[in-house]
């Protein structure tokens, strides 16, 4: 882990303040004054700030089951924050990997590890997201074909990447997409003249939603590790 990030994890300093204390020569790594914020350090190094030993707090990785009428934000907006609805300790330290609309329910991943969440949301990762969708109109087989070959969303010039549509009943489908464009699912159905009446995310990558609405749990190390990099 980078030294400046390690300092953030093990103190109350933010990244800017961490760099300032490094510049001021206040950080010692294994008996040497540290001068590079990007130096790689490990938990077994001896690291002090102003002579006080620093020990990194472990990152947190959580699954949330988001109820409708909540926002994927740390603060209340037009609707209450998803965190306030779920009462998670120190939730102001967490951020969400892949936001959803206020009316969308289901799986949300939250963490304080920015590197981990970036590995989930970065475009070339092609992380599959699986949604259950209820539609206004019965779905046609040509919709599945359009989604498979990619289609242009209104106002965009690049077609969507191939998406998989499984028809569960005339108005209920399961859609798997590997991108995270703004309102992507709603805009994909709008592009074929249909409309999303309700939207629920049930899976992100290898992580399946398995808790009731309004609850949260820690992810297991098997769930966390595929997106962890040094
Ligand atoms: N696509 C949408 O349109 N909305 C969401 O909340 C998630 C994906």
Helix content: 10-25%
Structural class: alpha+beta
CATH architecture of the largest domain: 2-Layer Sandwich
The beta-strand count equals 13
What sort of overall outline do the alpha carbons produce when their principal axes are compared? Answer: elongated
State Rg: 21 Å
The CATH superfamily of the largest domain is known as Alpha-L RNA-binding motif
What characterizes the major β-sheet?
9 strands, mixed
Cofactors, ions, other ligands: uracil
What's the average pLDDT?
94
- The CATH class of the largest domain is identified as Alpha Beta
Query: pLDDT below 50 for ≥5 consecutive residues: which ranges?
Result: none
Question: How many helical elements?
Answer: 7
Q: How would you sum up this structure, described in words?
A:
By secondary structure, the protein is an alpha+beta fold. It has 3 domains: 3-53, Structural Genomics Hypothetical 15.5 Kd Protein In mrcA-pckA Intergenic Region, Chain A; 61-123 and 207-219, 2-Layer Sandwich (Alpha-Beta Plaits); 126-204, Alpha-Beta Plaits, CATH 3.30.70. It has helices at 3-10, 15-23, 82-86, 114-121, 141-149, 184-191, 221-224, and strands at residues 27-29, 32-33, 47-49, 52-53, 61-66, 95-96, 105-111, 129-135, 164-169, 172-177, 196-204, 207-208, 216-218. β9 and β10 (172-177) form a beta hairpin. α1 packs across α2. The longest helix is centred in the N-terminal third of the chain and has 9 residues, at 15-23. The mean pLDDT is 94. Residues 100-101, 104, 183-186, 199 line the site of uracil (URA).
């Amino acid at each position: 882990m980078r030294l400046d990030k390690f300092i953030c994890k093990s103190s109350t300093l933010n990244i800017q303040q961490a760099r300032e204390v490094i510049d001021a020569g206040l950080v010692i790594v294994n008996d040497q004054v540290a001068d590079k914020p990007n130096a790689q350090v490990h938990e077994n190094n001896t690291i002090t700030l102003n002579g006080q030993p620093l020990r990194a707090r472990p990152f947190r990785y959580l699954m949330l089951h988001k109820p409708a009428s909540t926002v994927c934000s740390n603060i209340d907006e037009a609707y209450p924050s998803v965190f306030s609805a779920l009462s998670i300790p120190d939730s102001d330290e967490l951020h969400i990997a892949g936001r959803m609309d206020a009316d969308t329910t289901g799986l949300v991943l939250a963490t304080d590890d920015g590197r981990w969440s970036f590995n989930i949301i970065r475009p070339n990762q092609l992380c599959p997201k699986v949604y259950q969708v209820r539609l206004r109109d019965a779905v046609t087989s040509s919709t599945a074909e359009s989604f498979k070959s990619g289609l242009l969303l209104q106002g965009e010039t690049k077609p969507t990447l191939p998406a998989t549509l499984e028809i569960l009943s005339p108005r209920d489908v399961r859609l798997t997409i590997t991108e995270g464009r703004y309102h992507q699912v709603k805009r994909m159905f709008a592009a074929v003249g249909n409309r999303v009446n309700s939207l629920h995310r049930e899976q992100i990558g290898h992580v399946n939603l398995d808790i009731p609405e309004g609850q949260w749990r820690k992810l297991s190390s098997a769930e966390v590790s595929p997106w962890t990099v040094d």
